[in-house]
Amino acid sequence: MTKRAVVLLSGGVDSTTTLAVARERGFETYALTFRYGQRHALEVEAARRVAQTLGAARHEIVGVDLRAIGGSALTADIAVPKDRSDAEIGTGIPVTYVPARNTIFLSFALAWAEVLGANDIFIGVNALDYSGYPDCRPEYIGAYERMANLATKAGVEGHQKLTIHTPLVHLTKAEIIAEGAKLGVDFALTLSCYDPTPDGAACGRCDACVLRRRGFAEAGVADPTRYRAG
Asked: Where are the alpha helices (DSSP H) in 65-137?
């Protein structure tokens, strides 16, 4: 019987590579994307393209409007930081952090995994880039996994032992891109920018664009990103 896995898919480089890794490991993949009121909602369409291209058995897009809570440059009227130095990017928790986002997303993934009878969840968190995000740390994922195995009917009855996979957690952006390229990922399908134009061109200046652009250069992989002119 083919193993099933729920894969959190935003449509960016990391989650797309994670989906490819799960497929390569022999899982039947169930992609889960969120329309959470993010200003870069075009990433949802990117996720749709990726899920179809990488052969997800099913792709669910769930609406959870985090604009009601705000507190982030991605969900509130707060400017997305641009043109930050490496030192600035690597210091503190950036204003693009969305409060408790991964906890919310993993909770939906946990619920779907229980319904599917899946013992595995994949998430593309990374502790090197954006190390300031508290919900991207290995310690957090380990704590959530322990909680998850106490929280479900399937877990209590012994039908499910959940594992949360973080295949990219200790990789640089260049290493992630190299891995995705090796697995045949078409990165032209993806979107990373936090402040794209309405037609999907990347700003080239936000932290996500800076890290993406540098990652492609360091990996020696052609960057297919369409950047905003000027």
From this structure: 86-89, 101-116
